[in-house]
Amino acid sequence: MLAPDWLTKPANVNDLAKDIWPASAKRESEGQLSIGGVSVGDLAGDFGTPLFVLDQADFFDRARHIREAFSAAATRFGTTAKQYYAGKALLCTEIVRWVDELGLYLDVSSGGELAVALAGGIDPSRIGLHGNNKSHSEIGRAVAAGVGVIVIDSEIEVERIASAAGAQDRIQPVRLRVNTGVHAHTHEYLATAREDQKFGIAISDVPQIVANIRSHKHLQFLGLHSHIGSQIFAVEGFIEAAKRLVELHAELLKTGPVPELNLGGGFGVAYTEQDKPALIEEIAYAITETVEAECKKRGIDVPALAFEPGRYIVGPAGITIYNVGTTKDVKVEETASRKYVSIDGGMSDNARPALYEADYSVALASRESTSEPVISRVVGKHCESGDIVVRDAFLPEDVSPNDLLAVAVTGAYCFSLASNYNYLARPAVVAVKDGQTTLLVRAETETDLLARDARLNTTETKVLK
Q: Of 53, 67, 116, 433, most Cβ neighbours within 10 A?
């Protein structure tokens, strides 16, 4: 059996699963896939392939959906909830403007992401800066810009941030990231609250570090922060983290104000038919209900809450379009073969399958087919056997060179993780809405790649010793 147990042979290979593809995805009368009212053929013709495509309306709808779900739950339990869009999922200046228009806050994790956020024009007070190794320069720039909060990830950062704020005579709000020890059900590399990893402060060390924060007149302690992982379907991990944080929150209230509690993000989305994430309303209700119950048990007020969704907003809003280069049928078992479909991108534009063994859904996009669905593997053009974009899928038997394929749910962590491996140029990012296209990030060219080669146009020879 070449196909995994979860993968079922489709009755119609041309169908698009509603819960996986962007809201506007559909087959036009001639069978070609369109997103936001624009056909994949026109997109490929105008911008080339590979190509990242974002359904702008879907992005906005998903952002409003999650904001309203958490706000409604928070209101029900007597508090408020602010939403930070996690910029690491996908960031460019236009997305910063979308976040601003939506009234969301913005979470960044490096000096580069901070630079993009500021260039996008969002009010710096609505930016939060993360990172387990923020440099003196990054901290100084964040303080100077007036970012709303810096998340402290290690004890050494207390002095760094206090020093930068003192040098600029500013009061810098901070949160403290706590490693709750909750073992979220996700890939090992996506779990960020287990004991033996780089993020956060152990619960036992928090009171002493908070006391240190409060001793600095240029720091303002806002509260605790937790992030247990990414692409999480079950709500139990979020509930357990909330319980542990409220207990710690209550202890800290005995020695000073703790106005906020940030419970992070990591809410999962469906990439394939096997994925069954909980409804975001259920997650929002369960977390806020837990916080309210734990606060009531301790006789304290429910703090203002904050969350950091990224993948949930942008992941399903995005697809990647590829051009098929070659196909081959590879005999795997005595009576079975797998069709290998090679496309013009690969692990340089989608590293997640190689990093996390992530699964994706794919469709023949440039036409419909009446051919039999056959078990297929979509692979890239890199010099790696692990260069797999879609490990297991049913594609029409007649898929051929120059066909266009579309891979769903690539809005998050594909452009962000893209590289120039084998000197492939990174693809463009295009937004589509109501039949119109907007170029967000232009495609790289080979000229761009060569422009950084410092010795290319240098005649001088230097001997290295």
A: 53
**Are residue 259 and residue 128 in the same domain, yes or no?**
yes
Residue 357 and residue 216 share a domain: no
Spatial distance between the Cα atoms of 74 and 305, rounded to a whole number of angstroms: 8
What CATH number does residue 156 fall under? 3.20.20.10
Residues contacting 451, CB < 8 A, separation 6+: none
> Rounded to whole angstroms, how far apart are CA atoms 102 and 90?
16
Segment 406-459, tens digit of pLDDT: 999 999 999 999 999 999 999 999 999 999 999 999 999 999 999 999 999 776
Q: Are 309 and 66 in contact (CB under 8 A)?
A: yes
Q: Give the amino acid at 90.
A: L
Is 10 part of a structural domain of the chain?
no
Task: Give the number of domains in the chain.
Answer: 2
Is 383 a catalytic site residue? yes
State the catalytic residue, choosing from 92, 295, 383, 414. 383
pLDDT in tens, 329-356: 999 887 889 999 999 999 999 999 999 9
Taking the CB of residue 454, how many other CB atoms lie within 10 A of it?
7
pTM over 0.85: yes
Residues in Cβ contact with 369 at an 8 Å cutoff, skipping those fewer than 6 apart: 13, 14, 396, 398, 399
Whether residue 379 lies inside any domain: the answer is yes
Co-location of 441 and 306 in the same domain: no
Specify the DSSP element, H or E, that contains 255: none
